[in-house]
Design a protein that fits this description.
Layout (H helix, E strand, L loop, with lengths): L6 E2 L12 E5 L4 E7 L9 H14 L5 E9 L2 E9 L2
Antiparallel strand pairs: 1-3, 2-3, 2-4, 4-5
C-alpha cells in the first residue's frame, strides 16, 4: 500500500475531521506531520492506516515512531494510536 494515496501535507477541509493527522518522529522530535484523507480509505480503516504508516516507515528509515491524532481543530485533538519500528 502506498501511503501517498491517503496522506497529505495539508488538512482535508472537505471531511468531517479535516485535521486528522499522523506525526512522525525520530528518536527525539517530530520530523513530519501529514493529514489523513479518510475519503480515500475504506470505512473500517484500522488495517489500512497501519499499512500506510508501515509503508511510510519503510521509506523513511530516520523515522522511529508515528502517532495518529483525531483532531477537531488544531487545538482540540487526542492521540488514538501509536506506531513504531520494532
Amino acid at each position: 500500500m502506498n501511503y501517498k494515496e491517503f496522506l497529505s501535507d495539508r488538512p482535508i477541509e472537505s471531511q468531517e475531521y479535516p485535521y486528522n493527522s499522523i506525526e512522525f518522529f525520530d528518536q527525539e522530535k517530530i520530523i513530519n506531520k501529514l493529514y489523513v484523507d479518510k475519503r480515500k480509505m475504506k470505512s473500517n480503516a484500522e488495517d489500512q492506516l497501519e499499512e500506510a504508516v508501515d509503508s511510510y516507515l519503510n521509506d523513511h528509515p530516520e523515522v522511529k515512531r508515528a502517532v495518529a491524532y483525531r483532531e477537531e481543530a488544531p487545538e482540540k485533538r487526542f492521540a488514538f494510536r501509536e506506531f513504531g519500528k520494532d
